[in-house]
Amino acid sequence: MSNHIKERIVDNYVHAYEKLSKLSGMFSFVENDRIQRCESNISFGLINSVLSYKRSESKDPVDEVKEIEDSYTEKGQRLFWLFYSHEADELVEKALLANKFQANEENEMTGFALSLENWSSDQHICGFELQAVRTEVELETYRKVVLAGFGIPENVQDIFCRIFVDAPSHDKAFQHYVGYMEGEPVTAITVFKDGGGVGIYNVATPEAYRRKGYARTAIAQVLREIQNQGVKQAVIIATPMAKSVYPAVGFKKELTIQIFSK
């Protein structure tokens, strides 16, 4: 069961990127029987990345890593390679290192999962209200909260919003939320429904509102909502800055994700 949970975390993450590529048109999702990756002509986040990779028994992984990297280099893009702890392959890691890729611990992400069967939480803040984004005005509020919460530089804000804010707002697989404290927008969150599970993404709280429990309370309210809809499991992939938030709501760490790059 544990390996199944780990696979669900990765699958939800990969499928979210696949969906975002189709909705936004800003990058391409490329897949074969062993590799799932994203590529584009723009430099932003992980939209130029190998999301999953299984080594071929007949092809030298050192050569294949170089071949894949070259396809990005030709476009003038830096490649990021995700390496999952539960799928650790010493030969793949050696192939990455042989091609001068390095893992940066500061960028390491953590995969969490939570079974919603019999789950409950007492997370509550008087005056806090979570609202699903339905209108353009509400979407603009969400946009401002996530840009501030993630500290997105002004020169890439349009790219970020086109991929992660505007495109998913028009698809039923995604739902944005904004958390308000006594009417003031203080946190944001997005859920992605993938089969029988839900992934929680874009948990963002501007600096002035952090360490007050708003994100935890927003997550708990979203979990109650999807639990009532019959969803059995929720997953999260967290950045180093946010990974301490999720255990307080009941999430359990299942895997780590190293990001190799040059």
TrEMBL record:
Domain N-acetyltransferase: residue ranges: 128-262
Matches recorded under Pfam families: Acetyltransf_10
Annotated CDD domains: NAT_SF
Signal peptide: none
Domain of life: Bacteria
PROSITE patterns: GNAT
InterPro entries: Acyl_CoA_acyltransferase, GNAT_dom
Name assigned to this protein: Ribosomal protein S18 acetylase RimI-like enzyme
Organism: Paenibacillus qinlingensis
